[in-house]
Amino acid sequence: MVSFDQILSRQSIFRDQAVLSPHFVPRVLPFRDLLISEIMTAVSPALKGKKPRNLILYGATGTGKTVSMKRVMEDFQAQKDGIPMFYLNCRVYNSRYRIFQKVLKEHVPEIEKSGFGLPFLYEKLLELANQGRQLVIVLDEIDMVKDLDDLVYTLTRANDELKGGGISIVGISNKISFKEKLDPRSLSSLYETELMFPPYSSEQLQKILSQRVKDGFQDNVVEQSAVNLAAAITAQESGDARYALKLLLKAGEMAEQGNRRKLTDDDVEAARRKVELDLAAETVSTLPENHQVVLYAIAKLSLSGSKYSRLEGMDGSFLFSGEIYDEYDALCKKLRKRPRSLRWYKEYLNDLEMLGLITTTPSSKGIRGHTTLIRLGHNPKDIEKLLKGKLALD
């Protein structure tokens, strides 16, 4: 039987695994200097007691939006006491009430007690800002806020009632179109600066990974070809630096489990499918329930096959949007939940595609009628297994 002493005495190929985490904020962020400088310029008026303009950071997953903002936050808060910058993950704090409660928690102790209504929280927020403070609220994945229109309008219009300080928003989103959900009044109030984060190229990913390898692994453990392969795979898939880091971390763990002192191309290839499943599980677990039901419907139909594919002579991996909605409707009834309308269903499909879980394409002229064809982006058995327990489906 293996003991803890034996495990702890093993020489690890890692120097510091935390460096390979997508949540690690390095001192130097390659290829993001200019964007970081622009963020700093945008929020710097707060350090002079003036209200910054609202700022929106766009870009696909893993393009450095969050880590760049966190780098700026560290430097911002080190500059001057009394100017709070709040960071909120909107997958967790996904409503106006929860966001207000989180922002006020550290400054208004009685907020810990339950039962306070939204007007009370709003008044407390105004009191906090009226102390002469410029509040900068960073909303990561801002598009996940359920009452986004109300939130944006409330926060931006709050400045009209302030005499001392101000409130500014920094929104982070991988959906360029998220503002389409906003009412024209909220949109005009937002009046923001926009910054776009492009995907990383293969060469850029090589340099990013090499930087992390130096601090994360022991010397001469990772072969350069393995770094190049991880970068090439990632650039071909998405340019997502988080994916590249997870690929390298998982490859290292698999090499260590096999008692190998070198991380090679074979380890990267072996880690590839495992990482894809891990990322899918992570994404799927945070989806709202209706999104999960739609995704489960797609996985289920992908396994059984489209009932129209033979009739229409199309690729069997594609499904018709209409048949997925019918399956979604049937699953909702089975779960004793009210199915949402087609308009909302299309929104769910857009969100799932944005997250890389599905791909959609308009039907060709050879197919009767005009519809959208949908294909699952992952192994349907894996997705079905992930969701079956979560949705309590037999």
How does the SSE layout of this entry go?
Elements lengths: L3 H6 L23 H11 L10 E6 L5 H15 L5 E5 L6 H10 L12 H12 L4 E7 L7 H10 L8 E8 L10 H7 L1 E6 L4 H15 L7 H14 L3 H17 L7 H21 L3 H16 L4 H4 L6 E2 H14 L7 H13 L3 E5 L9 E5 L3 H11 L4
Parallel strand pairs: 1-4, 1-5, 2-3, 3-4
Antiparallel strand pairs: 6-8, 7-8
Q: Key features?
A:
394 residues, alpha/beta, Rossmann fold, Helicase, Ruva Protein, domain 3, Arc Repressor Mutant, subunit A, 3 domains, 5-stranded parallel sheet, 3-stranded antiparallel sheet, 16 helices, 50% helix
Care to describe what's here?
The protein is α/β, with parallel strands linked by helices. The protein folds into 3 domains: 165 residues, 3-Layer(aba) Sandwich (Rossmann fold); 85 residues, Helicase, Ruva Protein, domain 3; 104 residues, Winged helix-like DNA-binding domain superfamily/Winged helix DNA-binding domain (Arc Repressor Mutant, subunit A, Orthogonal Bundle), CATH 1.10.10.10. The protein has a 5-stranded parallel beta sheet, with helices on both faces. Strands 6-8-7 form a 3-stranded antiparallel beta sheet. The two termini are 39 Å apart. The mean pLDDT is 88.
**What topology, given as strand order, has the largest sheet?**
2-3-4-1-5
CATH fold name of the largest domain: Rossmann fold
Number of strands: 8
Supply the CATH class of the largest domain.
Alpha Beta
Structural class: alpha/beta
Q: What Rg, in angstroms, do the CA atoms define?
A: 24 Å
Overall pLDDT, averaged? 88
* The CATH H-level homologous superfamily of the largest domain: P-loop containing nucleotide triphosphate hydrolases
**Which segments are poorly predicted (pLDDT under 50) over 5 or more consecutive residues?**
none
How would you sum up the major sheet? 5 strands, parallel
Query: Can you give the helix content as a percent range?
Result: 40-55%
* CATH architecture designation of the largest domain: 3-Layer(aba) Sandwich
Work out the strand percent. 5-15%
Task: Describe the global form.
Answer: globular
Q: Distance N terminus to C terminus? A: 39 Å
Series of secondary-structure elements, N-terminal to C-terminal: HHEHEHHEHEHEHHHHHHEHHEEH
How many DSSP helices? 16
Number of domains: 3
